[in-house]
Amino acid sequence: MTAKLTAVRAGALTTVQDSGRYGHAHLGVPRSGALDAFAMRLANRLLGNGPDAAVLETTLTGCALRPDRAVTVVVGGAPCPVAVDGRPVAWGTPVRVPAGAVLEVGAVTAGVRSYVAVAGGIAVEPVLGSRSTDLLSGLGPSALRDGDVLPVGTPAGQVATPVAAPWPSPPTELILPVRPGPRADWFTPAALHTFTSATYQVSPHSNRIGLRTEGPPLERASTGELPSEGMVLGAVQVPPDGRPVVFLHDHPTTGGYPVIAVVAEPALAAAAQAAAGTPVRFTLG
Hints:
This protein is mainly beta. Helices cover about 10% and strands about 30% of the residues. It has helices at about 35-45, 190-195, 270; strands spanning about 5-10, 15, 55, 65, 70-75, 80-85, 85-90, 95, 105, 115-120, 150, 175-180, 200, 210-215, 230, 235, 245, 255, 260-265, 280-285. It has a seven-stranded mixed β-barrel with strand order 12-19-16-17-14-13-20. The protein has a six-stranded antiparallel β-sheet with strand order 7-6-9-4-1-11, with no helix packed on it. Strand 16 (about 235) and strand 17 form a beta hairpin. The longest helix has 11 residues, at about 35-45.
């Protein structure tokens, strides 16, 4: 028999995530998946899991879990204190958690999202080929609640000898390379200059759907209504308040606000770890 994890403390927002759902945008289903894909894959690699094995993605406050059988875990992504039955253990390297012990993943000390990987992966039933929680469409398992029980898969590989893994630090300034979007011509030349020269800040209202920003509004050249059109991961949409919103993994697949630019996907992992108030700059490249 394989292990099961009971949520002793679910935290502010803890979800099951893997690499996400591909090929369903025409059905209105976004990709979802881990916002910091690099952190997910590194944690899985340290445990001998496949790179896309499902993990838990926590938000700011961590979570606490109790396995009914001994398991090996890695807590990575945003740095945070980690303890087993109150005893501090290593962050970012494999840790053995005995049966019945409580793994406490504390509040982040930097960044936003920590990742809890377990040898064998989180083995909830996949939906449309993915185990990911989709907060927009409601597909996949619900966000974790106190008392929820999660199945663990059978470990398939060799756990790595503890090493200094190359975990990137959360950004102190977020630099987002962009290409012009399909509706860049809906904005004045002054707005286009402001977009790529001003410094914005990450809004505390950001979530898995989008990274919202605070800063100078962007003035439209066209004030007409835009029919809904397809949206992609990394699209920078500008709502009526003029502040750019970067679409993340749970974004809607269509939208009616103009897209001024699109962020290159590799930059989105850093966006996932940019805390509220982090300076943001958009650069053409």
